[in-house]
Amino acid sequence: MRSIISWFLAACLLAAGQVRANVKAVFAHFMVGNTGLYTVADWEDDISKAAATHIDGFVLNMAAGEATNGASLANAFTAANNLGSSFRLLFSFDYAGNGLWDKQDVVALISQYSSNPAYYRRGSQPLVSTFEGPAASGDWPSIKTATGCFFIPSWSSLGAAPAWAKGTADGLFSWAAWPEGPNSMSTFTDHSYLDALGGAPYMMGVSPWFYTNMPGYRKNWLWRGDSLWFDRWVHVMHLQPEYVQIISWNDYGESHHIGPLRDKAYVAFDGNLAPTAVDSARVFQAKICELWIPN
């Protein structure tokens, strides 16, 4: 199954690459919190596999205060530099997982890594994103002054126009990469961002599917994904956003990972935060029946 997914990813990105004149880069969302047991060799393997399918870089999701923000980040950049390729890394500060980041910690991490050859830059500026965090939007003018970063957050909980009206972002990333329930995916939300941004950079989300059943995180849903992977790449080729972010490379808890399965990276399933595999399979079957079998 993984080989089929990898082949399909490569085919889609190759097709996209032939017509994506305005797309600067295609990234994959990467959960750093899953990498506490990673070695440099594990990072090298992930980076090599992603680069082979024409992905340009990993967007490194980091929750505030996570231990993996230390050694794991160092290993990631070491691996990227060891490979000596054009593959790049950039930061996504997760303001939802463990709450808001302290702005000085944000400045410290950007300052530490933005000059690294493996960090992705938009022109001369290091590109930085977030997962949520609009309540801390007032921190970003001083963060940008201190680091010189180009800021494209995901403040999707607000919607495009209110997020852009904050006035502190240089572009926006939309987390809306899935239809809700049994509905088909459209580009309605993408267009709302393009309209609000008025030519400023848009980062568009692409994902193969979404299923999660993790009571410990108060998450339990299934969204339609039968043709979503194909449909979203068609949308990308039509809309030509400046950036694309695949959600995700390794978020196993939400089932939309396109990267390899790694037994050492199932942190999200620890501590009774998810049901057993048997229970999960039963819930999945019930949800399939709920969505697709007429009453």
From TrEMBL:
InterPro entries: Glyco_hydro_71
Signal peptide as annotated in the record: 1-21
CDD domains per the UniProt record, alphabetical: GH71
Name of the protein: Glycoside hydrolase
Keyword list, A-Z: Hydrolase, Signal
GO MF term set: glucan endo-1,3-alpha-glucosidase activity
Source species, domain of life: Eukaryota
